[in-house]
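Standup notes
- DV: blocked on the single-chain target, sequence here:
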Amino acid sequence: MRGFLASSIGVTCAAALALPLTPPALAATARPVPTTEVATAARPAPHAGAPDTTMTDRRAAEPSAAGSTQSLPLEPLTRSRATPSASASASASAEQGLSRRAVRRFSLVGVIWDDPHAELHGRVRVRTRAAGTGTWSGWQDVETHNGDHAADLDTPESTSGRVRGATAPLWVGDSDGVELRVRSELQGTGGRSIAVAAPSLPSGLRLELVDPGEGDEALPGGPVDSPRTGGLNTEASAATDASAANADLAPLGATEITALSRAATEREYYTLRAAEAAQRQRAKPYVGPRPRIVTRRGWGANEGLRERKFVYTKKVKAAFVHHTASGNKYNCSQSPSLIRSIYRYHVKSMGWRDVGYNFLIDKCGKIYEGRAGGVARPVLGAHTLGFNSNSMGIAVLGSYGSKKPSSAAVKAIARVTAWKLGLYRMNPRGKTYLKSAGSNLYRKGKKVRLNVISGHRDGFKTACPGRKLYGKLGSARSTAARYQGR
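- DV (later): unblocked, structure below
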């Protein structure tokens, strides 16, 4: 257990212009950690045919190396048309956005603002232009209630001075044009939304356009993507550290951690927990077979983005299940790109130290390593405000308020919880107590009795993980317990 509590030491890092390289293959074989991968080319310019653009728009539409974030300040909009208003000081607090324009290529959008404690009471809608065809999408809603996915209050991560308020990210696919409307609204009777002058929109609203890049590459430069410190050597060292955190499970540089049988997993358990097993006189563990897990190296994480140090909690007593609320318009071959986009959005746009979740699962049931520090270790995440200590966060890629999650995704939840909770001798069908660090449901310091496998809404008043996914957690609990041999 003491090994699980050790943290690697260092500072954040990384940078350089990046060229898309061959996407990392999701193979079990080890690969060398990148050192000096430098760009010599850029992506093509956006599709022609956009309306007249300003000089600022034309600069935004210039080619850019893959793997970047464009951050565009919002402008006041008139109520009658989605065009900038020269005399809209009164409406600035009620409606802001961006008129239709060409931009550099991106695949994921989100809106951020200055104060992480401020809420956006209103509606965010976006439409985008497909880079391949030049076709504009219809208007899509962006989930505005995202503050409940965060580090606990008064922790170093939440008080770093870098954290910003943000919507959930929305995956839109390869795009090169955008239009945005953000409107202050309150819920009326009968579920109707009505526009009001108050509450005002948060200050410092910006549209974030994220290009996930091809993975496994150095960072492009520029004001948004400039590294926290250091250079390529530091990034390579960070990549080595991230891989070495799983050294007990896979070789250095591995793109995946292979699945094990029940018997092999039990042998591994005794190796990982030798001291504890000796104290318990090698009692038979209830631990599910280790599932196949794509590592950060496997999904192409740029380790120069995150903070270098790993931070751990004491143990893993519960798993909180989430959805990313990023929409369902992705295919499974795009999952690594989507995860890279979420990672970049969490770190560069929202100001977190790393991606918030400990594991991510796609609609095909593939399991991905989340926050760095080792998949078998109690890595402290930023997923369930108030209950990040002694827990882990699992996010299913997609939105599951009205859409059912795939059976493969639910099965993957059961597999990863049966294994990881089993390492900490937790029964997936059982209950546990966690101490609240403060949420909108439980005051700070209150001991709360929760399901060992809980939904995000069990610890915080939120719609996450969506009604349809939440309804499948009972099945995940019983299946996970069966995998553990209970």
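- Follow-up: The chain is about 20% helix and 20% strand.
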